[in-house]
UniProtKB/TrEMBL annotation:
InterPro entries: ApbE, ApbE-like_sf. The keyword Nucleus does not apply. This is FAD:protein FMN transferase. It comes from Evtepia gabavorous. It is an enzyme of class 2 (transferase). Its cofactor is Mg(2+).
Length: 450
């Protein structure tokens, strides 16, 4: 789905950070990063003694087997059992269990003739019990069940991951819901509510779905809240610039003068079940809010199915359901807009929240050596020049985060942050074109200390 006033739709990789230690400079292939330390091998360790030691060639060792890893535990338990049976453990085990060995072998030939049958049977049963205990405790902890699927929809890369869940068909239901809503809200789909609304502009009211009505009403609310900077009637302007896949059209002044008079949310009229664009040539494009609204509807669907822990990644719209199944918050990386994809500016930790980012690095093209991004100012007709490179919004709903990230970017640092501060349960991180990070007053409650 194309963005009408600045929402990014470029493919992006999931950004859940599955680690405890985060770095701002991540790997160059994606958002998720991890910090690793090299652990020196024993052969590389320096001997503290002044005596010259004979070096031995090193060789790689296979990973310990399930039985070998708890060999010390087995040996200790066997000795306890055998002591109770008045037997000498070392006389029955060949070779003896030694601390630090990779394997422990019990030689039945050496012990089976050394004590009576009754004690042999008791020993054998005790050994089987201990071996079964070792098998249960020695293995690595099993990864909690989860299922994940990805798709290319809404003109972006989408990935949905459900934790403590194994039924992949649940995600298929979510994809079906995305397709259904896109068929209503995308102006680019023939026969959609927005397509029919544009074709009837200046002529007649159009019957619309309850979902379309809800999004149009929300759009008008944010237009009023933003002094008109958030405006979904920028459809003609979006089409004029046509920024996509690092290609675009630099418009002439005459072209801008032709489309700017068509931009005015006051001329978008909504009544129950119907909408109307007052002038011919007007186009409503919901790209700056529809993706967030769709994410909220998908979350509602998944919760109704019983999902309690999930991450919905719709491009740079991240929506969380609950927390991780072990009770900890999800950790999400925020892209540095002044660096290449995968380099993080910051990391946040949240439960059940929406994290949405709009930035100059998501969709742009170069004309005569200058980059022009897709977040268009409805008053000038040009990409917004406010000194901001990106705005990230943390909120309860993705529709709110979607609309506010674009709105604050257009308003600029001072007015944008003032708007955030007056809203309940909303925090933000502004990143300037100079690389400065400007957080809202409560942003630190989510920030992961590094």
């Amino acid at each position: 789905m194309k963005d009408s006033s600045g929402r990014a739709q470029s493919p992006a990789r999931p950004v859940e950070i599955k680690r405890e230690e985060s770095t701002k400079k991540g790997n160059r292939d994606g958002i998720s990063t991890s910090t690793q330390r090299e652990i020196p091998s024993r052969a590389a360790a320096t001997l503290s003694s002044g005596k010259r030691k004979r070096s031995r060639p090193t060789r790689s060792r296979p990973a310990p087997s399930i039985i070998a890893r708890p060999c010390f535990l087995i040996g200790h338990l066997l000795r306890v059992v055998l002591k109770g049976m008045h037997l000498d453990a070392n006389s029955c085990l060949s070779p003896p269990l030694r601390h630090g060995t990779r394997s422990a072998i019990i030689d039945p030939i050496n012990w089976k003739w050394r004590f009576p049958m009754k004690k042999k049977l008791s020993f054998f049963l005790a050994f089987l019990m201990i071996l079964s205990m070792a098998g249960c405790t020695a293995g690595q902890p099993e990864e909690p069940p989860h299922v994940s699927k990805s798709n290319f929809m809404l003109d972006t890369y989408i990935e949905i991951t459900l934790y403590d869940w194994t039924d992949a068909s649940t995600i298929d239901l979510a994809f079906d819901e995305i397709r259904r809503l896109e068929s209503l809200l995308s102006v680019e789909q023939t026969g959609s509510d927005l397509d029919r609304l544009a074709k009837a502009a200046g002529e007649e009211w159009v019957e619309i779905s309850p979902e379309t009505e809800e999004v149009l009403r929300l759009s008008k609310e944010y237009a009023a809240l933003s002094e008109g900077y958030f405006d979904v009637t920028t459809g003609p302007l979006v089409s004029l610039w046509n920024i996509h896949n690092e290609q675009g059209h630099y418009p002439s002044q005459a072209e801008l003068e032709q489309v700017l008079p068509l931009i005015d949310s006051d001329d978008l009229l909504v009544k129950e079940g119907h909408a109307f664009l007052a002038r011919k040539g007007m186009v409503a494009n919901l790209g700056a809010i529809a993706k967030g609204y769709i994410a909220d509807q998908v979350k509602e669907l998944l919760v109704a199915q019983g999902v309690e822990h999930a991450v919905l990644n719709l491009g740079r719209n991240i929506l969380l359901i609950g927390d991780k199944q072990e009770g900890t918050a999800f950790t999400i990386g925020i892209q540095d807009p002044n660096e290449e994809e995968g380099v993080l500016a910051d990391v946040v930790s949240a439960t059940g929240k929406s994290i949405v980012t709009s930035g100059i690095d998501e969709r742009y093209f170069t004309y005569q050596g200058k980059k022009y991004h897709h977040i268009l100012d409805p008053y000038t007709g040009f990409p917004a020049d406010t000194g901001l490179a990106s705005v990230t919004i943390l909120s309860d709903t993705s529709a709110q985060g979607d609309a506010l990230s674009t709105t604050c970017f257009l308003l600029g640092i001072e007015k944008g942050m003032a708007l955030v501060e007056q809203l309940d349960d909303v925090e933000a991180l502004f990143i300037t074109t100079e690389g400065e990070l400007i957080p809202s007053s409560g942003y630190s409650n989510y920030q992961v200390q590094q």
